[in-house]
């Protein structure tokens, strides 16, 4: 026991508590075995029961190591793969069998035993990736969000194994120019329908898809293919199941004491983020996935419920929780400077992505839920009425530079009767696809990083169901296959054109050409870099506009490099055009071009800038 380490733990400053707590393979007194350590300050006694002692408690009574509640024991002969639980005689005298809060592996639900696992046996070969990874502020960040259990099933329609899916997943991500994959929670959880967001094992990779080394192998292969890995992390609440954290020692140890604070809107228990030991627990859980699984980012769920009590602004700010999140983000950035911290936050709380030293929460990015809601709300409307809702599209740029946003169409948008992205759009079947292509041109050329949930790239019509794999048969239909190719083309353009990612959060990289043409449902803007100027024209009306004038910043030829109505994507445009500017004032510009804009369509034009000649 390192007293210094426990001091940090009790002070709420420990981000490596898993190095002490949990089940650790080791050698003590020349005997191989496992050191078990847990925290239960109000327990009367704690015993280790498991497969190695026929689940009895004889001879394996844990010893209290200090007055503040740490219990520990070394048991010789215990090996990797052995199952165990803590039999806790709680403060009330009730005896309950609990999983290890720091377990590194667990039984598949509905079983609840913890399993001894060796996390250090993996032979990693991704150091080159780790040395160069960054938070990608001036790099393309194109994220594929996925639920591992329902992306694809195996031949028996069962869950795939972490390692066995690696090669196929990598090839798919590469073909669509995704830079990162975001995995919905892979911590252990008892209820499939919670998708991992109602967690029981914060240090335990779910056994649904294989072993700890299978998951490490998947991530190692992704890194060697230059694909980053983001994992969802839930620092707000946990399951109430009796085998887990809830009333671990018979008292509200991890949850708030008062029910009004502890009871969450999901039927789970809110973490007491004011308690120092809970802070060390959660900070260590976040650090654990970066340290032991080499993840490149954590997307933190329900941060609005950290900022305000129960996520309700009227209930006021949760000062203790805010203090915790700032401390965690500061410590994670200090220890892992190249790892991204991403907030899913529906509040208007300021400075979420500002550094903690400047009074911010310290996240690198925040999902732009406002952009998502406004954009989809606009497209749900009959095109006749869109001119009265023009601001739904233009408003995002009024606040965009207040935070560092990720533009997202996540799993939350395609479940619970909300319809999928394509199905939300007003119009006939064919009109939906025309507008879907234009919507994605808008998304990939709007400032900000990108995230899409699996199935979006297929133009999925069926809402996501965690029990079923994606509808891959859609690719047998020409209109879906064409959209999938179009989506991949957008990914290639986005990741290869610096103007679309390099200075996302610099206001000089974006400029409206015409933000006010509500009557024609037209939007036009430019993205700029030292290499070139890119003109984006979006038409969300059913009318075609031939030779429509748009102002441009300088004279020259503007080449069409994408047309949403190109034949290869399901439209009827046979070839891309080029437009030479003329000296004719338009949109407060001295030069203009006249562009053919398809109905419900969009175009992307490129004007390359000549490199300035410098002296040798």
Automatic annotation (TrEMBL):
Pathway(s) annotated for this protein in UniProt: Glycan biosynthesis; glycogen biosynthesis
GO biological process: glycogen biosynthetic process
Residues in Glycosyl hydrolase family 13 catalytic domain copies: 145-489
Catalysed transformations (reactions): Transfers a segment of a (1->4)-alpha-D-glucan chain to a primary hydroxy group in a similar glucan chain
Keywords tagged on the record: Carbohydrate metabolism, Glycogen biosynthesis, Glycogen metabolism, Glycosyltransferase, Transferase
Pfam families: Alpha-amylase, Alpha-amylase_C, CBM_48
GO MF entry, a single one: cation binding
Record-stated family: Belongs to the glycosyl hydrolase 13 family. GlgB subfamily.
Known function: Catalyzes the formation of the alpha-1,6-glucosidic linkages in glycogen by scission of a 1,4-alpha-linked oligosaccharide from growing alpha-1,4-glucan chains and the subsequent attachment of the oligosaccharide to the alpha-1,6 position.
Full protein name: 1,4-alpha-glucan branching enzyme
Species for this entry: Amedibacillus dolichus
Originating gene: glgB
